[in-house]
Give the backbone structure.
Amino acid sequence: MNKYNVLFSLYSLTALIIIIERLLPSPFLSPFNFIRLHELNQTVLFLTITVALSFFYLRILTQDFKTLSKKRDVFLSLCFVIGVYLYGAGEGWHEVASFTLNTYCDLNNLLGNLCNGLFINDYYAGNIIFFVGGLLVTVPLLILASYYPVKAFTAKEMAILIANSLVFAFTWFAYAAFDKVLIGLFFSTILMIISGYFFINIRGQHRQYPFITYSFIAYVVATTAAVMVRLL
């Protein structure tokens, strides 16, 4: 299988495992029920896997880091590293606040500074930091992908890419369509516009730019479906 499709497929597998994990009961951890296994999985296991996959995208797009001899690519890689930090910080901020909010507060009747503050930390502060980090990870990869075309994907390789892109779209759709706030939809829309810009520039050769094509399909599907759900 093409190395891009290997990474796309590994991400899809991770997404499916995350979905299954969310549907299973999650025990509290000792001592004092300080956190659930779910939050531990999200912040330590799944986040680490997704960051590792992003790192391998960076490796491929910089031709095994050979293009880092160019100042432009060094700057983009620096943005990527900063994005990874913010991505992890936002996820940790969100998950701990979400656990505490949902465990000790009534979501339908938030009272006092503690519960209202936890709501802001969960739905706004944590999510905003997380998605800003995601932008700083994704946009440099899109820029790098636009500089370095690859051998055109075959029809079979494109079919695998599209299938994986739809799985990726579902992960964004879940955020954008069903969160209490519109942060997920806002960032999904931004990424749809940014990836759309790159896709328009390479549309005639989209098979030579798999990362851009994969991203564009995912963000268009996720954002469009989320808007339809919100409106209906």
About this structure: The mean pLDDT is 94.
